[in-house]
User: Which sequence fits this backbone?
C-alpha cells in the first residue's frame, strides 16, 4: 500500500512537471512571437527661427519600432532638451526660459523600406515646457510640430543588430524655423531596415 501511494504521487509529480515544461515551452514561443523589433537613437539638431536671435540647439534620445513588416513606416517616442527655447507663437507673452524639455512622437516613412540606404519623410509632434528664471512669470509650454526629409544609411553589425546614420532637414512651421539634424542609432532584433 505504501509503494502504491508513492507510485501514485510519483506519477502525479511527473504529470505536473511535464505540464510545467509544456507551459514553459509555450510561453517561450509566445514571447518570441510577441517580440517586436526596436530601435534606440540619439539625435541632435539646430533650428534658426526667422525674426529670432541666434540658433536653437536641441538634443534627445529616442526609441521606437516599425509599424509594418516591410519597414516602410516607423514610429517612435523621443525626449528632447532645448537650450533657449523660442517664444510660443500661440501666446501673446512668453517668459524668458533658459532651457526646456518634453516628449515628441516621430513618424517616418521610408519608401524603399528594407534597403541599406534611402530617403525618408519625417513628421514630429509634441511639446516642450520650461520654467522661467523669474518665478513670478508663468511656465512656458511650446507645441512642437516639424516636417522634414532625410537619408538613412544602415550598416549590418550582425544578423540582428544594425547601426544607422540619418542626416535630415526640415521646417518647424509655427516658428518658421528651418532645421538641420543628425540621428545615430541601433536597430535590434531583426528590424527590417
Assistant:
Amino acid at each position: 500500500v505504501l509503494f502504491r501511494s508513492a507510485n501514485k504521487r510519483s506519477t502525479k509529480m511527473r504529470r505536473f512537471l511535464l505540464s510545467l515544461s509544456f507551459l514553459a515551452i509555450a510561453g517561450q514561443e509566445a514571447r518570441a512571437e510577441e517580440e517586436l523589433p526596436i530601435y534606440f537613437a540619439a539625435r541632435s539638431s539646430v533650428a534658426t527661427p526667422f525674426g529670432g536671435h541666434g540658433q536653437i540647439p536641441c538634443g534627445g534620445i529616442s526609441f521606437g519600432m516599425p509599424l509594418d513588416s516591410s519597414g516602410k513606416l516607423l514610429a517612435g517616442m523621443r525626449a528632447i532638451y532645448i537650450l533657449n527655447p523660442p517664444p510660443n507663437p500661440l501666446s501673446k507673452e512668453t517668459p524668458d526660459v533658459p532651457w526646456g524639455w518634453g516628449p515628441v512622437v516621430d513618424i517616418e516613412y521610408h519608401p524603399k523600406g528594407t534597403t541599406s540606404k534611402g530617403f525618408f519623410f519625417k513628421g514630429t509632434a509634441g511639446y516642450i515646457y520650461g520654467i522661467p528664471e523669474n518665478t513670478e512669470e508663468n511656465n512656458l509650454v511650446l507645441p512642437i510640430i516639424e516636417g522634414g526629409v532625410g537619408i538613412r544609411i544602415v550598416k549590418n553589425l550582425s544578423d540582428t543588430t544594425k547601426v544607422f546614420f540619418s542626416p535630415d532637414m526640415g521646417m518647424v512651421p509655427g516658428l518658421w524655423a528651418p532645421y538641420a539634424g543628425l540621428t545615430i542609432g541601433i536597430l535590434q532584433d531583426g528590424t527590417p531596415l
Notes: The beta strands are 38-47, 56-66, 73-83, 99-109, 117-130, 140-156, 161-172, 177-188. The first strand starts at residue 38 and ends at 47. Residues 102 and 189 are 28 Å apart (CA to CA).
